[in-house]
């Protein structure tokens, strides 16, 4: 297991890449996408860098489009592909904000960022397809693409659960989200045909467990089924089944899924296995091609480092958010309110209208 000093060094490496306006790109001067930025911000909160994490979430809130979406990529604060909008980007701020609340209890941040979460998840529900899955992107005419991606949908399942928890916190119930959550969960558990076939990617293997849609014995069975296909002993998890390439973020996300399935020892083993990607300053290389003994791509990304920090927190129980990814009961199910505080307790929550 990583020591506290090692985790702090990794958090410092992430913080060193943050721009002065709060943006958290993959690396300084590089691309930024909203999903990976949220993951990096969560790692900052784990490491006690709460002001930096809050600055990242406020950066995202300022750049949200009127329809609730974000661009798929930014560079230097500008949209790279202005017409693109992906559902997983629209939803993931909810996970980051709920995680931050669990870490810090920062009511001001929740109240100020809640409208952006609400717009994003309202867009996600509008992109839901008749079978319960959510389309992966918006077409130019504003309708949802009818292609659904399993990994993105599993992430959105967690985002909707976090959104329901935040809605209870703010006293603004969102029944449409709860209905969307029910349909999406059924699709993830029982309707594999609803999703495009990307089974060569390890994320499609473990993400339904990581996102909380598949739990208990089915989760354990799912992880066992493709273990030999994706896990390389002593190195970590492959990104894709047909390439000799292990990646740090996928390995640590697998560790989170293993912990959620009640296999913490196996999770610890995976975090230990990927430490060959650790650099001297605490940052992490993205991946490793073992036949060539080569790091590829030649980059050390904030989101890879963040996945390590989140796995370490989940396995150590160091923060109040440590159970977010690993405890199936840590979030309310559809139709329930969080019991963290009385509904509507947040400053300014009562009576706030929808945009």
From TrEMBL:
Superkingdom of the source species: Bacteria
InterPro entries tied to this protein: 6-hairpin_glycosidase_sf, 6hp_glycosidase-like_sf
GO biological process: carbohydrate metabolic process
Span list, region Disordered: 329-355
Protein name stated in the entry: Prenyltransferase and squalene oxidase repeat-containing protein
């Amino acid at each position: 297991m990583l020591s506290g000093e090692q985790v702090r060094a990794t958090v410092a490496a992430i913080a060193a890449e943050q721009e002065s306006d709060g943006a958290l790109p993959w690396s300084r001067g590089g691309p930024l996408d909203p999903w990976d930025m949220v993951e990096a911000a969560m790692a900052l909160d784990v490491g006690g860098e709460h002001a930096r994490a809050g600055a990242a979430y406020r950066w995202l809130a300022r750049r949200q489009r009127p329809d609730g979406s974000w661009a798929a990529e930014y560079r230097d604060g500008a949209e790279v592909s202005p017409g693109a909008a992906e559902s997983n980007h629209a939803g993931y701020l909810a996970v980051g904000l709920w995680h931050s609340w669990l870490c810090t209890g920062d009511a001001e941040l929740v109240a100020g960022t809640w409208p952006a979460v609400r717009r994003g998840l309202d867009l996600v529900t509008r992109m839901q397809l008749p079978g319960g899955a959510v389309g992966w992107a918006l077409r130019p005419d504003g309708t949802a693409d009818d292609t659904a991606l399993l990994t993105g949908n599993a992430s959105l399942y967690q985002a909707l659960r976090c959104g329901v928890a935040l809605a209870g916190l703010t006293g603004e119930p969102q029944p449409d989200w709860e209905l969307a959550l029910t349909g999406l969960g059924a699709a993830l558990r029982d309707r594999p045909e609803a999703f495009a076939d990307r089974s060569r990617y390890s994320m499609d293997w473990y993400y339904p467990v990581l996102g909380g849609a598949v739990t208990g014995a089915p989760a354990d069975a799912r992880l066992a089924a493709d273990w030999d296909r994706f896990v390389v002993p002593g190195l970590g998890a492959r990104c894709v089944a047909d390439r000799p390439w292990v990646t740090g973020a996928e390995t640590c996300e697998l560790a989170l899924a293993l912990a959620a399935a009640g296999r913490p020892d196996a999770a610890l083993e995976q975090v230990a296995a990927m430490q060959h990607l650790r650099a001297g300053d605490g940052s992490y290389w993205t991946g490793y091609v073992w036949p060539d003994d080569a790091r590829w791509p030649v980059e050390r990304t904030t989101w890879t480092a963040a996945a390590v920090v989140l796995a370490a927190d989940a396995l150590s129980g160091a923060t109040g958010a440590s159970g977010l990814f690993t405890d199936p009961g840590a979030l309310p199910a559809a139709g329930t309110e969080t019991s963290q505080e009385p509904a509507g307790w947040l400053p300014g929550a009562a009576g706030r209208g929808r945009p």
